[in-house]
């Protein structure tokens, strides 16, 4: 769930002296809580979508209003949150919310089979998702981008990623030229973006004609307590929101794949940090046809230290809840007879 936004493009810099090059550098959940196939693939050919697996029909939901509290879903708070979480991230988050099996399952629709593909991993963090990418793609063709130097320092220590380009950057203002990459991958990053539509618009821009974007993120839970903590922590989009954002950005052949660990048994009552993998294809070269206004969050604006501390503390408390959810679900899986939804 590495967070990939920085304090603005003007602060972009290579990580620990590594010079960026080669990429044209410029400086569904069931809302009734019922059971559905864990790995179902849903295809969307238009705004009136058709599902390849059975799923409830739901209206496209609107994003949360700006007035709704978003405690650590702010760039500055998240920067410091990951300053400390980076120490234990691979040992605490991945075992419960983002396992190797889930990662490989989520990356499968991205078609990462050619070693010569140029790939950008936006919000790559400690490099856990990147390790799945370099299984088939040459590491020298992969760029890891994240806002957190502390997370990136962990990625830099991993031997399979030694040849990857590692930089700090902003997911909503990518430092890559237009039409430069074959694949765009972002796992566990969108939940922190102040403006998800802007980030997906950037994904469209940097891809080459025929390139594919693969975005992996959480799905809005159905249980009331999980919804509460999701809302005060970060963005848990609904499946329809993911699809709408991709379509508005200009992507075609949009598909959504549900992912989750074995113990989830297909029920999304509590939500997961990683809940779905969404892919789309760029069919027209150039920038996205979508026009957007100014960014919704001004990171240069001074922040009241007390407000900053309160938001960071409350966000960390909400995060703790989601660290405990996998433990609870795993224990429940051991008790409830197999074949029954939990």
From TrEMBL:
Q: Name one Pfam family in it.
A: Methyltransf_11
Where is the region SAM motif II? Answer: 164-177
InterPro entries per the UniProt record, alphabetical? Methyltransf_11 (IPR013216), MPBQ/MSBQ_MT (IPR044649), SAM-dependent_MTases_sf (IPR029063), SAM_MPBQ_MSBQ_MT (IPR031164)
Region entry SAM motif I: which residue ranges?
119-128
From the UniProt record, which GO molecular function terms apply? 2-methyl-6-phytyl-1,4-benzoquinone methyltransferase activity
Q: Where does the record place the region SAM motif III?
A: 205-218
Q: Name one GO biological process term.
A: methylation
Q: Which UniProt keywords apply?
A: Membrane, Methyltransferase, S-adenosyl-L-methionine, Transferase, Transmembrane, Transmembrane helix
Transmembrane regions: 308-331
Q: Which residues form the MPBQ/MBSQ family SAM-binding methyltransferase profile domain?
A: 70-279
Give the family from UniProt: Belongs to the class I-like SAM-binding methyltransferase superfamily. MPBQ/MBSQ MT family.
Name of protein: MPBQ/MBSQ family SAM-binding methyltransferase profile domain-containing protein
Source organism per entry reads: Stephania japonica
